[in-house]
Design a protein that fits this description.
Elements: E1 9-10, E2 16-17, E3 21-23, H1 39-50, E4 55-62, H2 82-94, E5 98-104, H3 112-115, E6 119-121, E7 130-132, H4 135-155, E8 159-163, H5 169-174, H6 189-192, H7 194-207, E9 212-217, H8 226-239, E10 244-248, H9 266-270, E11 279-283, H10 289-298, E12 302-305, H11 307-311, H12 315-321, H13 334-339, H14 344-350
Parallel strand pairs: 3-4, 3-12, 4-5, 5-8, 6-7, 8-9, 9-10, 10-11, 11-12
Antiparallel strand pairs: 1-2
Helix pairs in contact: 1-2, 2-4, 4-7
């Protein structure tokens, strides 16, 4: 019998999600320069909770000031930011959504004009104007991820997601191309993945068994290999310290770059893993009610929605009411996006997506 989007899900930590639809962590540039929550970001995310998302995830939130990846980024690196996070977590929970913050560090992708100093990276990168982290700084990075998770728990979030995808610092450690370290954090895949596992295990130890912990990985781009990510994913599952695995596939239905002759698409490769008690969510070109059901039918536990969640704050309600729901066609008007809770700043950012926003007349 097919799993429907409206069915509930219970994670191994005990957290319950009212349906199978999660709002993706989406860059929106709406918060303040110091990383504190703005009213615009609060409004945007709260609308998605009101719109029925079972889990609402924040944008990538940096765990160190030097890890800031974009202007207007929500931060979680300091106790001074706690009031905003308490307000956000309470608002999301009040509408029946699980509130989850994504823990992030941009590494070499931190723009100089944003952080006003050289970015950091596992190894020196002249191309990105980034310096190598010392061993002591790697330890501090690990500890700051864990401390940020504890801070999030104290603010009332139901859980955290460790951002190990999209070319940010944990991806940089995982990449054999980028990571040229000669110590225990470089070389073999085991060494390159060491920091990720130390962070995840540290969060579980610090936050306890009843806190929702997830990891986001991407099996392609930014020096990632599908085979490596499958190995890391299976170890994360086997270790028993995560509740969900979030795989950003870019397009769930595409052929893997690493295996262009494969008869399996990238999602089917991911589904070969033995998930045990860990729930799987995927993102990548899932835009319609039909897409959602197709992903659930394939065996994925819940679905991560990005673009359609921007276009329709109540995408979950629309899909549950109408399995054939299709989002409004692009480009969309500024008025439509404002009605969907996007500020002028966010709308300007969305112009980076080709053909998403109508040109001003």
């Amino acid at each position: 019998m097919a799993v429907k989007p409206e069915t509930t899900i219970e994670f191994s930590c005990g957290a319950k999600m009212k349906n199978r639809l999660m709002l993706a962590p989406l860059t929106n540039q709406q918060s303040h320069d110091d990383g504190s929550l703005s009213d615009n970001e609060l409004h945007w995310l709260t609308m998605r909770a009101k719109g029925g998302f079972g889990l609402v995830m924040t944008c990538a939130s940096h765990v160190q000031e030097i890890g800031k990846g974009f202007a207007g980024q929500l931060g979680v690196y300091s106790d001074a930011l706690i009031p905003g996070h308490k307000k956000l977590a309470a608002e999301l929970n009040s509408h029946g959504s699980l509130a989850v913050i994504q823990l992030h560090h941009a590494g070499m992708r931190s723009p100089f004009e944003v952080i006003k100093e050289k970015a950091v990276c596992p190894s020196e990168s002249e191309k990105h104007n980034a310096r190598a982290l010392s061993l002591e700084e790697v330890f501090k990075l690990r500890d700051d991820f864990i401390e940020a998770a504890v801070r999030a728990q104290n603010c009332g979030y139901n859980g955290v997601e460790v951002h190990g995808a999209h070319g940010y610092i944990l991806t940089q450690f995982l990449s054999s191309k980028i990571n040229q370290r000669k110590d225990q954090y470089g070389g073999s895949l085991e060494n390159r993945a060491r920091l990720l596992f130390e962070i995840v295990n540290g969060i579980r130890n610090a936050c306890g068994k009843n806190f929702l912990v997830g990891v986001r990985l991407s099996p392609e781009r930014f020096g990632m290999q599908l085979s490596d990510i499958k190995t890391v994913s299976q170890q994360l599952i086997d270790d028993g310290n995560i509740d969900f695995l979030d795989l950003s596939l870019w397009d769930c239905f595409k052929t893997p770059e690493e295996q262009p002759d494969s008869e399996l698409n990238i999602l089917e490769h991911i589904l070969q893993l033995q998930y045990k008690d860990v729930k799987l969510t995927v993102a990548g070109n899932i835009r319609t009610g039909k897409d959602v059901q197709s992903i659930l039918d394939a065996g994925v536990d819940f679905v991560t929605i990005g673009r359609s969640g921007i276009l329709h704050h109540d995408f979950p309600k629309k899909v549950i009411a109408n399995p054939h729901f299709e989002p409004i066609e692009n480009p969309v008007s500024i008025d439509h996006l404002k009605a969907e809770g996007l500020s002028d700043t966010f709308i300007t950012y969305m112009r980076r997506w080709d053909g998403f926003v109508e040109n001003a007349k």
